[in-house]
């Protein structure tokens, strides 16, 4: 048996599990092979999406009809709030030309244009998924795509993978049930699928599952019914959605949530962040939140559906992530896929553009059409020229992970001694080397403001008074 390696030939010890901070902790960035697999998957097929290539979409509105402020401070989820959205439905495995009426999981991706930036809830019509660790996601998708030699779909590949990975059985059971073949996009539920978190005004965190229950009722197809439809209409779901909205028959879904406290999560008999498992409705009952309505068809399919870019990394204050391994990986993988598929500044396209003001230092690259304005001396951070600044009020509460916590630790607190080692180096220099240092610094400060020069001299003085005075004298000679 040959040794599995990275693309650089390095042997792989474990191709089943991501590196995490503890058994239930978040994924570590050092897991190169995880990032390599996800990044490579995003580049395997162009220009259509690597997965969810065949899709339909419509605009609509989310109206919050119930008060859940005790769970979240997110403005989009406050009672009475109405938020414009776009919802893209899709099949997972098929290419852009695939038939709609196929047995497959359906994507259920929503972009909410909130006052605090875009919130993307990228889910499916099922509450679970085939795998719970993104380390296996590219491998799973390979089984759903075509055999690279025959260029045919392979049932053997799918079932071989499923039977080698028993965590798939929950999703496989749903897929092979009646609900694996929805009659239309209007007649199916939607789920955020992952566990997310809600944070209230007191800084309290709650784990949450998002549910969208169709008001049209569940309606499914048999294999025979689907085959008959595909024989006559490969765009049956697209046609149904478009024509019903054109006629004013606007589909609706009831928006509900499940809530779990951090204490309850710690006491649960299974991992609540496992994407292959659901939460009991008896133990964690559905809570009414609002209603979602689709009421407007896109004007241009390519601009507004094909170029729509969704990512679970897009969140707003009061809504956040969880240690769900699949969610953690999608936070990286989805925007990376959009940059590759659409372009560097895909977020500036009309369908992806937020309605609030955007202030960012990420301005380089193709497709910057002027949405991100760059003022003189304000193109980097931190700066001394009143550029956009962070605001600590948006920090989330620390996340306990066993004996450690996940937080934004100030790396400067690890050691605030930035002067003793430069002093040791400075003291090793002979007089000629010191003079060269002073002169080189003075030369490099040509055009530097007096404010910045003064700050530099104050720092040099903490290394050595001689260091500061030497640079000051060299600057004076050039004045």
UniProtKB/TrEMBL annotation:
One of its GO terms (molecular function) is metal ion binding. The keyword Magnesium does not apply. It is an enzyme of class 1 (oxidoreductase). CDD domains: catalase_clade_3 (cd08156). Belongs to the catalase family. The active site is at 52, 124. This is catalase. It comes from the Bacteria. Residues 5-389 form the Catalase core domain. It comes from Campylobacter geochelonis. Gene3D superfamilies: Catalase core domain (2.40.180.10).
């Amino acid at each position: 048996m040959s040794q599995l390696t990275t693309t650089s030939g390095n042997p792989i010890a474990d191709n089943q599990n991501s590196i995490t901070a503890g058994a239930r902790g978040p994924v570590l960035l050092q897991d190169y092979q995880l990032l390599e697999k996800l990044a490579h998957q995003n580049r395997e097929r162009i220009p259509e999406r690597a997965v969810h290539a065949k899709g339909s979409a419509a605009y609509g509105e989310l109206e919050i009809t119930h008060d859940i402020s005790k769970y979240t401070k997110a403005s989009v989820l406050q009672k009475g709030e109405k938020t414009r959205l776009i919802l893209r439905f899709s099949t997972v495995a098929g290419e852009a030309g695939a038939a709609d009426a196929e047995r497959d999981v359906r994507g259920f991706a929503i972009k909410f244009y909130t006052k605090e930036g875009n919130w993307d809830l990228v889910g499916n019509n099922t509450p679970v998924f085939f795998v719970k660790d993104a380390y296996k996601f590219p491998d799973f998708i390979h089984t759903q795509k075509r055999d690279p030699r025959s260029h045919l779909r392979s049932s053997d590949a799918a079932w071989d993978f499923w039977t080698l990975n028993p965590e798939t059985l929950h999703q496989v059971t749903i897929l092979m049930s009646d609900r694996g073949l929805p009659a239309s996009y209007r007649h199916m539920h939607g789920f955020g699928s992952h566990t997310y978190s809600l944070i209230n005004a007191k800084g309290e965190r709650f784990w949450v599952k998002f549910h969208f229950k169709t008001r049209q009722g569940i309606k499914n197809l048999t294999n025979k019914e689907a085959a008959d439809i595909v024989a006559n209409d490969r765009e049956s779901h697209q046609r149904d959605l478009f024509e019903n909205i054109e006629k004013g028959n606007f589909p609706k879904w009831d928006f509900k949530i499940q809530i779990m406290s951090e204490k309850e999560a710690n006491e649960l008999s299974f991992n609540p962040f496992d994407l292959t498992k659901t939460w009991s409705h008896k133990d964690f009952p559905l809570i009414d939140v609002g209603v979602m309505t689709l009421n407007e068809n896109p004007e241009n399919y390519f601009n507004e559906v094909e170029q729509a870019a969704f990512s679970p990394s897009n969140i707003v204050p009061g809504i956040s992530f969880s240690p769900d391994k699949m969610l953690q990986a999608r936070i990286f993988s989805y925007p990376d896929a959009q940059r590759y598929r659409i372009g560097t500044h895909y977020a500036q396209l009309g369908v992806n553009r937020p309605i609030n003001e955007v202030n960012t230092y990420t301005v380089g690259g193709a497709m910057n059409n002027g949405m991100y304005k760059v003022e003189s001396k304000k193109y980097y951070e931190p700066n001394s020229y009143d550029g956009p600044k962070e605001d600590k009020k948006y920090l989330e509460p620390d996340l306990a992970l066993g004996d450690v916590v996940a937080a934004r630790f100030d790396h400067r607190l690890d050691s605030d001694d930035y002067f003793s080692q430069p002093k040791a180096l400075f003291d090793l220099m002979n007089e000629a080397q010191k003079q060269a240092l002073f002169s080189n610094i003075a030369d490099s400060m040509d055009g530097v403001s007096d404010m910045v020069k003064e700050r530099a001299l104050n720092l040099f003085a903490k290394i050595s008074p001689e260091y500061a005075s030497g640079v000051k004298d060299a600057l004076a000679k050039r004045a």
